[in-house]
Design brief:
- This protein is mostly helical.
- The protein has one domain (2-84).
- The chain is built from 1 helix and 2 strands.
- The protein has one helix at residues 13-84, and strands spanning 2-4, 10-12.
- The chain has a two-stranded antiparallel ribbon.
- The longest helix is centred in the middle third of the chain and has 72 residues, at 13-84.
Length: 89
């Protein structure tokens, strides 16, 4: 079977199949590249999220240590106020 192009050139079914196949192959290559990039980006995001989680844990630990220090300081201030008989508000 032969299909005519608009300019009068003829194209065979085999050639048409090859054109369609090339189009699909080109599209598949494009999609593979996009998925590879997405995979790489996801890997980077996982690494960034891991780093953020570690930073949050460190901040939480620092806050807990600061809270302990503040509690100790409050107890010392209370002790000094009691020893000096300072009036409290």
């Amino acid at each position: 079977m032969v299909i005519k192009k608009s300019k009068g050139n003829k194209i065979t079914i085999d050639k048409l199949a090859q054109i369609i196949n090339d189009g699909f192959n080109g599209q598949m290559k494009y999609m593979d590249e996009k998925f590879e990039k997405m995979g790489k980006d996801m890997g980077e995001m996982k690494s960034d999220v891991s780093a953020l989680k570690k930073d949050v844990r460190d901040i939480k630990n620092n806050l807990q240590e600061n809270a302990k220090t503040i509690n100790k300081l409050e107890m010392r201030v209370d002790y000094v106020e009691n020893v000096l008989a300072v009036k409290k508000d």
